[in-house]
Amino acid sequence: MKTELKRGTMTEPVLALDDLSVRFKLKRGELNAVDGVSFAVHRRETFGLVGESGSGKSVTARAIMRLIPTPPGEISRGQIRFEGRNLLDLPDEEMRSLRGKRIAMVFQEPMSALNPVYKVGTQIGDAVRTNLGLGKAEARERTIELLSLVGIPAPRDRIDNYVHEFSGGMRQRVMLAMALSCNPSFLIADEPTTALDVTIQATILELITRMIEKFDMSLIFITHNLGVVAHACDTIGVMYASHLVELGPRKELFRNPQHPYTIGLLNSIPRLDTRSKHLTPIQGSVCSMMSPPAGCKFHPRCAQAMEICRREMPEFREVAPGHYAACHLHGRN
What we know:
Helices cover 30% and strands 24% of the residues. It contains 11 helices and 12 strands. The strands form 2 sheets. An 8-stranded mixed sheet has the order 6-7-8-3-9-10-12-11, sandwiched between helices. Strands 2-1-4-5 form a 4-stranded antiparallel sheet, covered by helices on one side.
């Protein structure tokens, strides 16, 4: 399903995905992890990409960074335009020079992204020396400055600590410091708060928001929880089973969700303005991407499914100005 979006009068986006599709050729068969996804992120915009695990969010992020392992994966079609250039056309060496300097990524699990046998300062310092050409002493001072910037206490002492000597929240701060080390213009944060408790989540979200404003960056924030992005994002895209099923401004999407899956995600968020102690879960689980159902992939879990939902994939259509949804409910006269 190709996502058709109208071209507005806004300035040229910093990042634009056009019909992006990623597949993996496995021994068990072919798996389409991302299928026909299109969206744009403008300068100073925070874009939230939301969906359950297995919906294709992280694969989309890795495709933007061109970190899809080949084989078994490949970007089968589409474009990824960053600052006017299609990243898929760039030589590997030029793409490597963009990573860190222009586009950076905060990964979901710091313990797997950071090397446990090297000191934290060495890992950040190596990135600074490689990308900015600083000497060893200058890189160390820059690393101390970055650790202080993201709220690591006593950075001159902690710079020589190993990863296991930091708490979960502090490791995410280290990851953010590494991502910011070369002053990128675009940041991708892949579920940076998933493994943290609620209080630390709020602190990390506030820190990321503050860094975005300070460095005048654009951001893609990936999460499975709409509640996390309720106040942080300008625009939200909802993914389900490799497809983008809804896209719109944050206030509009929360006030008037148009896809049953988005409504289900919103209904599963705890609320303080109600006496009800019960949440309404989405029944079932994400379909197998090795053998997805025909038609709309959400129809086996949808209480409003119709016969057409079982046969045909819905078009991604504009249901309100700037608000898009892929649902047959909006195709009826």
